[in-house]
Amino acid sequence: MIQSALIKKQRRILVILLVLIMATMVMGMGTGYSSLSYDRLIPVLFGHGTFKEEFVLFSIRLPRIVITLLAGMALALSGAILQGITRNDLADPGILGINSGAGVGVAVFFLFFPVQSDSFAYLIPLIAFISALFTACFIYLLSYNRNAGLQPVRLVLLGVGCSMALSGAMIVLISSAERTKVDFIAKWLAGNIWGDDWPFILAILPWLIVLIPFTLYKANRLNILELSEPVAIGVGLEIQKERILLIITAVALAASSVSVTGGISFIGLMAPHIAKALIGPRNQLFIPIAILIGGWLLLFADTIGRNIAGGIPAGIMVSLIGAPYFIYLLLRK
Amino acid sequence: MVRLYTKDLNIGYHEHLIVKNLNIEIPDQKITAIIGPNGCGKSTLLKTLTRIITPQSGTVVLDGKQIFNENTKVLARKMAILPQTPESPGGLTVGELVSYGRFPYQKGFGHLTKKDYEVIDWALEVTGTIQFKYRPVDSLSGGQRQRVWIAMALAQEMDIIFLDEPTTYLDMAHQLEVLELLQKLNVEQGRTIVMVLHDLNQAARFADYIIALKDGKIVKAGNGEEVMTRDVLKQVFHIDAEIGRDPRTNKPICLTYHLVKGE
């Protein structure tokens, strides 16, 4: 029932975004702390570079670029789902306590379990993922009502409350810790892309491969969920089941992203929003666009961030762009 | 035996019951109006009949099965709901909205079949909204929008349609337009219509069966002649009404009324 003109427009936007992403990737490959000039990129990519050039490109820059892109995509998709099921345009994966939950988990682990730094690096995504999931489950259980089932509004309110409480807990934890450890945690919280090695890609890629098609499969149900609850029930949608499945999907996506990048806000809020402004509210059309915008935004923020002023964490770069956008949204309403 | 009835229905939470021990039968292929003062439980009853609210005890039976245990998609092929003021996301076209009514027949990604397109066009045709097919729903007037939502319900190819105050916020002409459309669906296609109405004269004019509720209990249920009486209206609305005859339709009509004083 969607008009073909609209579908063509969506294809055009997708192509433009892909070009933007490619351009930003090339830009990211050629800039950084070590020198690898642009005219050497193609030879190095085809295996004609020196050892040093290959090391810089394949072991440092490319994995980071890929991770950033994937994490941005996961956050955007998570945000799109959450905005759909809560019918609230200001919903963001952060409201489910995912960022703060992961933060506390990592802080506790880092402060109280002395481990070797090598193995620690690989444990962090796991710890972050588990604590994010744990926090989301906790909020979910609190907001579940035996009579009324899962109420999205309750979920959002409790999520915001829990996030605050966890952030408070975080400050208590940090204030009692040593200086060097605090520096590390602060950096993690600020959303420093942290998993920047190929194995970390495995922490996030499988989720996307499974959950992007799954969400698109559910796109029509999301459309119907965005109508009022009685209408959705009336056309025979099992709203409790669909909501739970979709929340799990959103949590898994956000948790996998936070596990490699640390706390990054605003991507999940902005990307779906911009996508809807570009193409309208139909989930099957705007979700692919939101995914690409999310990936591109984070990639762009990280590429800029790591090249100026000795490296600003991507999370802060995103906030620098995101906060004004958020204020703009609030003012417009 | 009617297809849809309730059995000892109690709706509400704990001690605070909105609807108490209610047993009603909804006559098949007729227009039923539920009337009553604000807070009497008429909307709550409508929501329970359509499985939006689960009752505390008792049940609703459709075709011999309790609706709360029935597959919700199967139910959606039998009954459709039009809530009081439904919203649609900005920019959604009329055709798309009506296509959501095909959900109970869809599998997988929700691609529309040739049959789906035919039913959608038919529903738009019947409700006189085919010319708006490619227009955004939010660009239409209140009356047009209401007809579009009825088209979405029709796309479900249901036998029973429930409406919660379908004429609220519409001007007199558009109120009549919506009610006449519902009457047409009843007379020409044999669909059962159940609606909550505020306007007693509209209820008397269009409904074959009127259920008058007060404090979650039935005061009187029957045809317009039986319900539109001085005595019933006094009990239900606490008004002293002057009942006459509509010179055109010959149905009972409330000409004027006072609040019952004293007591």
Q: Would you mind describing this structure in some detail?
A:
Chain B: It comes from Parageobacillus thermantarcticus. Chain B: It is a peripheral membrane protein. Chain B: InterPro entries: AAA+_ATPase, ABC_transporter-like_ATP-bd, ABC_transporter-like_CS, P-loop_NTPase, Siderophore_ABC-ATPase. Chain B: Keywords: ATP-binding, Cell membrane, Ion transport, Iron, Iron transport, Membrane, Nucleotide-binding, Transport. The complex is a heterodimer of chains A (333) and B (263). Chain A has 333 residues and is an all-alpha fold. Helix content of chain A is 77%, strand content 1%. Chain A has helices at 4-30, 41-45, 51-86, 98-112, 117-143, 152-175, 179-189, 198-217, 219-225, 229-234, 239-261, 267-279, 283-305, 314-332; strands at 144-145, 149-150. Chain B has two domains: 1-78 and 159-230, P-loop containing nucleotide triphosphate hydrolases (Rossmann fold, 3-Layer(aba) Sandwich); 88-157, no CATH class. Chain B starts with a strand and ends with a strand. In chain B, the strands form three sheets. Chain B has a six-stranded mixed β-sheet, sandwiched between helices. In chain B, strands 1, 2, 3, 5 and 6 form a five-stranded antiparallel β-sheet that branches. Chain B contains nine helices and 13 strands. In chain B, helix 3 (94-100) packs parallel to helix 5 (142-155), helix 4 packs antiparallel against helix 5 (142-155) and helix 5 (142-155) packs parallel to helix 6 (172-189). In chain B, a hairpin with a 2-residue loop joins strand 10 and strand 11 (217-222). Chain B is 32% helix and 28% strand. The A-B interface holds A 1-3, 147, 216-217, 219-221, 223-224, 226-231, 233-238, 280-282 and B 13, 47, 50-52, 54, 72-77, 79-83, 86-93, 95-96, 99-101, 103-104, 106, 108-110, 112, 120, 134, 152-153, 156.
